[in-house]
Amino acid sequence: MENNKIVREPIINARVPEFKVQAYQNGEFREVSNKDIEGKWAVFFFYPADFTFVCPTELEDLQDKYAELKSRGVEVFSVSTDSHFVHKAWHDTSDRIKKIEYPMLADPTGLLARAFGVMIEGDGMAYRGTFVVNPEGLIKIAEIQDNNIGRNAEELVRKVEAALFVAAHPGDVCPAKWKEGGDTLKPSIDLVGKL
């Protein structure tokens, strides 16, 4: 720390670290690692803890958009610092969580939460963090918010659509509120001062 300034590296375009964790998905435990996202788009959806209040509403909302994201070639991973056993117990007891089809990653050591910058050290849990990762393993979208504020999966889908579009169309940019099929911009000197 120089001159009382804290310098943090930006998380955008940071590489997802190597990891290997247990997960619960569709009635089974399985291992998930960084190898599972190589060459694919992925969403990492961090939440504080199982058996809480806002979390099941968010995970159900994300499940409602899961098929749409999968159809675009995007895998979804929810992540909390709970164990995979706790994920299964929550799945077995909650009507909302019974619907979940995407992998629920167990991060009891906080490895992933720390790597993505969402770990609350004093509480042993994560902030609500949403990260979209491209096929090269680079974070392209990052959103972190306090734990009493729930997210909207519809807005996440819109952002994913924009990320997929600009990845497929180098040189184009998506303006505010852009939706799939909408007009994009090609930055050039001709646009300076005209928007």
From the spread of the alpha carbons, the general shape counts as globular
Q: Rg to the nearest angstrom?
A: 18 Å
Mean pLDDT: 94
Proportion of residues in extended strands: 15-25%
Terminal Cα separation, in Å?
A: 39 Å
Largest sheet: 7 strands, mixed
Structure classification: alpha+beta
Report strand order across the widest sheet.
2-1-5-4-3-8-9
| Total number of strands | 9
Total count of helical runs of at least 4 residues: 4
Helical residue percent?
25-40%
Report low-confidence residues grouped into runs of 5 or more: none
SSE pattern = EEEHEHEHEEEEH
Protein described:
The termini are far apart. The strands form 2 sheets. The chain has a 7-stranded mixed β-sheet with strand order 2-1-5-4-3-8-9. It is 25% helix and 23% strand. Helix 1 (54-71) packs parallel to helix 4. The chain has 195 residues and is an alpha+beta fold. The mean pLDDT is 94. It is globular, with a radius of gyration of 18 Å.
